[in-house]
Amino acid sequence: MAVLAALPLLALAACGYGSQAQNDSSAQKIAAGAEKIDGLDSVKIGYFGNLTHATALVGVQKGFFQKSLGATQAKYQIFNAGPSEIEALNSGSIDIGWIGPSPAVNGYTQSGGKSLRIIGGSASGGVKLVVDPKKIKSLEDVKGKKIATPQLGNTQDVAFLNWVADQGWKVDAESGKGDVSVLRMDNKVTPDAFKSGSVDGAWVPEPTASKLVAEGGKVLLDESSLWPGKKFVITNIIVSQTFLTEHPKAVEAVLKASVETNKWINAHPNEAKAAANKQVAIDSGKALPADVLDPAWKAIRITDDPLASSLTTEAQHAVKAGLLKEPKLDGIYDLTLLNKVLESEGESTVDDAGLGVG
């Protein structure tokens, strides 16, 4: 989920294009008499196997995407990092993806505004600063401590660096050294590092934050508290510009499924939580335990709104930290099809904060 404009995207994407998702056959059945959309055999969809991508998890598990796509097969790839998903989109390995704001900005700016569009929202919130209560009892105590973030320049890394700067502390963004030591590590590693005392806390998304709490950590700060209305984008939907131009009906079908999934999630929170966890187990081989799943699920807000104004703010935070040159984000959004779907469902349309296509 990097926003480092100075780093080659290919180098950041060394982990590859992601793995094929394994799904319940019942959720992938094509209805009798269904027709292909735009004559397509398949639509390739990417997402992360974590709860901030709940729309994708539930949409896959409950078959919403396949139902909306008719006889066009929904194919899925699972990713662990934003840069690899952007590379997959650029190469045509996927057509549409659920992804965090920072890699979306990075992919758009590095391509000169030619690679992708953000076409919808998915989730807000779900990011916390969790600390060892024996070492850190107040926000002031964070100074001088070792705090983990998921990746240099990723969405949470930028947010933490911005928060540090707001405290009047100084940290070199590249090295992570300064009044606070910022250690970049994979979310899969962070709970063990926290348990061993290698880090004193972490600014991380769910479910990693709740995993740290399960290891004895304490939530010192919920990032939502720093945003107007406690809303900020954590997951967007992106599409290849080429695919959007050539297959708008297929894109609209995926967006229709996304809106239907989000409506179902918000109407059936407990069933949706179980469905998301079932898909997490299928994708990763292990379900989340209740003491992690329950608080993590409560922290995430599912929404069709991409919360475009918060994307602009997050990009400015990256510029402020020295991790991103002033980005040109005009045209990064195309919410035409999403708003068409929302209107057809009797829902309110959403805004692109002036960053839509001309």
Automatic annotation (TrEMBL):
Sorted UniProt keywords: Cell inner membrane, Cell membrane, Membrane, Signal, Transport
Alphabetical list of InterPro entries matching this protein: ABC_SsuA_sub-bd, NrtA/CpmA_ABC-bd_dom
Chief location bin: membrane
Pfam families per UniProt: NMT1_2
Signal peptide start-end: 1-21
Entry keyword annotation includes Membrane: yes
CDD domains per UniProt: PBP2_NrtA_CpmA_like (cd13553)
Entry annotated with the keyword Membrane: yes
Subcellular location: Cell inner membrane; Periplasm
Homology family: Belongs to the bacterial solute-binding protein SsuA/TauA family.
Name assigned to this protein: Aliphatic sulfonate ABC transporter substrate-binding protein
Species per Swiss-Prot/TrEMBL record: Streptomyces chiangmaiensis
Lineage of the organism: Bacteria, Bacillati, Actinomycetota, Actinomycetes, Kitasatosporales
